[in-house]
Amino acid sequence: MIGMKIGIIGTRGFPGVQGGIETHCLELYSRIAKNEDVNITVYRRTPYLNDLNKKAEFRNIRFVDIPVPKSKNFETLLHSFLATVHALFQGFDIVHYHNTGPGFFMPLLRITRARLFFTYHNVSYSQKKWSRFAKWFLNTSERVSMTNADYVIFISEIIRSEMLSKYRIGNHCVIANGVNIPVKSEKSDFIGSLGLQKERYILAIGRFLEEKGFDYLIRAFVKADLKDYKLVIAGDTDYPTEYSDNLKALAGENGVILTGFITGEKLNQVFTWAGLYVMSSFEEGLPIALLEAMSYDIKALASDIPANLQVELDSDDYFRVGDEDDLKNKILVKINSGKKNNFSEILKQRFNWDKIAFDTYNTYKL
Predict the structure, then answer these.
(1) What angle do CA 157, 159, 161 make, to 5 degrees?
(2) Which terminus of the chain, N or C, has less C-beta within 10 A?
(3) Can you tell me the distance from the alpha carbon of 297 to that of 293, in angstroms, rounded to the nearest whole number?
């Protein structure tokens, strides 16, 4: 049975590719693909594939890998165009675009019978990393996506409210990001190889972008002067930038441990034994990394941006965004606090990937 043919455009790819949208697509489509009446095609970018994930197979999912150069300003543009052109001839029932950049070419598929879906993950054109052309392109892509999609999915109420104030949107809903409740690691060999002690390090995770605020996190950590704690930042940059180069230099000068992009058991260990998780972002959609930290019941601190506030941590779990002195003070309070967290029920009810996949699958069948 061929079933419902669905094309996915907008992710770099999965599995084993860093990024919130990549995690979202991995968790979502590996579940939707379990339905026998679907046949899913995911368009990936070859620069993010290796010998391990290039051969990955998922039930009812096929991958179309498109070679594009790694480029901050043109990679998404080129990949989205080539993927859309390929999709024109596949007889898809649904083509689902993820985030605004890829949606720029959505109108080309109007000549097909495909219903067009669009998930809005974050408002990206305000990010500092983009050139003037890139910001124009993302702004235009937002308008194109909003006005051409047959169905829009927002990952948060905050984004929906902002977009409804700008556009007349027809069929739409909010379906949040999710998180898996993990089996915590019993091993510590990886953190030991980094010179870390259990619960004696502060953890942050993400790509090396200005919006993540890792630079002021490092300065706040240095000001806290915690002799028996270390700061660990797990992640890397997709392509070198002045910011990422300066961040790595700042980390090196202050003894911050950079793990690079890690997955699997290494990431499990880093989460399991962390004494505190900090999300210092200036901008997020709905932060998967924060949800992942919560799934390990780690003490957490998050910047008080709307995206983080919607997770509804306790008031003392937030600090003023960009304020390294406030962050320093909150770090000292948290480190010395005996408070224990248990977020499992909140996560199961509000950020459950099985329910998210079920809800998304049902929107396809409307």
Answers:
(1) 65
(2) N
(3) 7
**Per-domain boundaries in the chain:** 4-178+351-364, 189-347
Which residues in the chain land under pLDDT 50? 1
DSSP letter at 335 equals H
Q: Which residues pair with 205 in a beta bridge?
A: 234
Domains 4-178+351-364 and 189-347 belong to one CATH topology = yes
Position 137 scores a pLDDT of 81
pLDDT at res. 127: 58
Residue identified by tokens 């990001």 is: 177
What does the block give as tokens for 36? 């026998």
pTM: 0.84
Q: Which residues contact 323 (CB under 8 A, 6 or more apart)?
A: none
Q: What is the model's pLDDT at position 130?
A: 63
Six-digit token string for 202: 């502060």
Nearest-angstrom CA–CA distance, 28 and 76 = 21
Say which CATH architecture domain 4-178+351-364 belongs to: 3-Layer(aba) Sandwich (3.40)
Strand partners, 235: 260
Residue 228 has phi, psi (to 5 degrees) of -105, 15
